[in-house]
Amino acid sequence: KLFAAVEFSVDATLRVARFVSRAIGGTVTSRRLLWLKQWQADMRHKRRLATAPFKGDKLFGEVLDMVLLDSKDKGKVLPSKSLPSPKMNLDQLPMSDAPIIGPLK
């Protein structure tokens, strides 16, 4: 009986860990999409940025730096639909193979 209880507890803990990791991934993607909401670009490019692999301690990490353009007042801005980015084509961004939200296994 004790072995069965421990086995059940371990299995439940592993399932919870998988669920939490997927929830955190979905949260990061949702926060990225909210941040990109006002950007005047098509959804495909927004999704590419939102699903880029998470690295570092910032929401987008190095991936966003490749897309941002320098503005006149020494700031950085997102390129709009009307102005193509001379810095990088958005199709070249890395995209995660994992679905944004998928079924638990």
TrEMBL record:
Region (Disordered): 79-105
Pfam family, one: LAP2alpha
Lamina-associated polypeptide 2 alpha C-terminal domain location: 3-66
Annotated TM spans: none
Protein name: Lamina-associated polypeptide 2 alpha C-terminal domain-containing protein
Species of the source: Micrurus corallinus (Brazilian coral snake)
